[in-house]
Amino acid sequence: MFAGSIVALVTPMDAEGAIDYVALEKLVEFHVESGTNGIVAMGTTGESATLGFEEHLQVVRKIVEFAAGRIPVIAGTGANATAEAIYLTSQLEDSGIAGCLSVTPYYNKPTQEGLYLHFKAIAESTKLPQLLYNVPGRTAVDLLPETVARLSKIDNIVGIKEATGDLDRFKQIKSLVDDDFLLLSGDDATGREFLLLGGDGVISVTNNVAPKAMATMCQHARAGEAAKAAVLDEPLSLLHDKLFIEANPIPVKWALSRIGLIPNAFLRLPLTVLSEQAQPEVEKALQKAGLI
């Protein structure tokens, strides 16, 4: 259920910052048709940080509705207050989501024990499968492998999205957890190598614009077919880089607009549309991938 090529889905918006549910439904259809293996709704790429709780929950429910059981939906439910993360999780308990993705608490910089107790409390509050999410470049806190191993012993904590891009970190975690604990990459640039080393999937930003190529590449990499995976990944390599030329999801929204998958590239403040200086760089990446 949580394996292969999983899209970290954007949330389309209009010029006033309202959520464009028509465009959102089209994106879900696009991913179902393209062979994407799962959707993360309301993660970093979905702009969860600028949506209120009710909007956040509504977007998740709408994506579940649009997916109609054809593709699993994982909901971002993390927060830097444990009580808020538990609230978001509880509100989606019977929504039809396949599980939750819970980011490490940002800004307040808890200790490893604090991280352990945070995720333990969330997991104990719900029956839903829980995926940990470690992205220290965004949160200023790093969930260390030893803490991941402790958390993996909790029944409904089923895996981790590890977004450091450090393959040695992946190897260390893999050595400490049971074989059924899911290991998902949160770094497109190293996703192929992550899978070839035995990872289960990639939660991908690039997947937004190139889902068929990502799905096929991940399939070959998971099968250990390194040469085939490399051939498929090479045209995407510039996207893996340039979709982070400014803070995600600024570049990917511009890219989606450029190739006609969403009507515009609008984001909510404090995020702004991709700068004119950066646009040609993303354009080159889209060209290399054969998308324009």
Automatic annotation (TrEMBL):
The record's Gene3D superfamilies line, in alphabetical order, gives:
Aldolase class I
Query: What InterPro entries does UniProt report for this protein, alphabetically?
Result: Aldolase_TIM, DapA, DapA-like, Schiff_base-form_aldolases_AS, Schiff_base-form_aldolases_CS
Entry keyword set: Amino-acid biosynthesis, Cytoplasm, Diaminopimelate biosynthesis, Lyase, Lysine biosynthesis, Schiff base
Enzyme Commission number(s) of this protein: 4.3.3.7
Q: Identify the enzyme class.
A: lyase
**Annotated site, L-lysine inhibitor binding, chain positions:** 49, 80, 84, 106
Q: Which residues form the active site?
A: 133, 161
Residue(s) at site: Part of a proton relay during catalysis:
44, 107
The text of the family note is: Belongs to the DapA family.
Q: What does this protein do?
A: Catalyzes the condensation of (S)-aspartate-beta-semialdehyde [(S)-ASA] and pyruvate to 4-hydroxy-tetrahydrodipicolinate (HTPA).
> Subunit composition?
Homotetramer; dimer of dimers.
Name of the protein: 4-hydroxy-tetrahydrodipicolinate synthase
Q: Which organism is it from?
A: Corallincola holothuriorum
**Highest classification ranks of the organism:** Bacteria, Pseudomonadati, Pseudomonadota, Gammaproteobacteria, Alteromonadales
| Gene expressing this chain | dapA
